[in-house]
Amino acid sequence: MTKKIAIQGIRGAFHHEAAALYYKSQFDICECMTFHHLIEAVEAGDADIGVMAIENSMVGSMLPNLALIRKSTLHIVGEVYMRISQNLMALPGESIQTLQEVHSHPMAIMQCESFFHNLQDIRMVESVDTALSAKEISENQLKGIGAIASEAAAKIYGLDILAPSIETNKKNYTRFLILGHNGNSIDPAIPVKASVAFVAPHLPGSLAAVLQPLAEAGVNLSMVQSLPLIGANWEYIFHADMIFQNIASARNIINDLRKKLQATWVMGIYPSSPEIQDNTKMKL
Question: Residue 197 pLDDT more than 60?
Fold first, then answer.
């Protein structure tokens, strides 16, 4: 049976590309305009799995998404890293000189600030999705309006790319998490990543007491972020990604950590994917 994957955005969005990169078989998509809707779609069974952006190499972690996953009933079952190439597009016959506005998601606009620095006659307009901006231009035949979106979006919605790869940093990568109800079986010999959230005791040295044993055990701490603990002044929930040699090591060390922590959430243990995958040959 064909799987259904929930993405933030619509066909041609970067989430659509990430889903194709991770799940190489044919699949259907469930279009979700918000990350809240994405979580709800998978929880309700409207989609089998979800694909959610969690951090970008230029702008950092998407902290609200960490909180969404922690509060949900879903588990992280995988991850995929994808190079993000932003493209300026418009209706056929348009040029950069004829554009009055450019629409896109705020993060896409942020990633292309340098390109538009000397194009100050063009008004930047934030939208909910990169591909949706392209679709609206196509469907409504909006002249003088451009969009920042993926190459796939230009093809799907019949737009011309006026300027390819306009992102400021060409090493522009986004990490996407794969969300499901249950973890997949994991080869006991391969490295795994555990995404864990925890509250350390509000005492001097308590965070060091958590991190020091990880260093001694050779655990690679690839990400640490803190979010305020609602209802407790100046206390925090820490989100951490930890890379272990194998799943047995991950479970043993996490069980030991639980004894030192005020609260713990294991959001997922899944195969670690450190390499950027080639997204030039995807089929959408």
Answer: yes
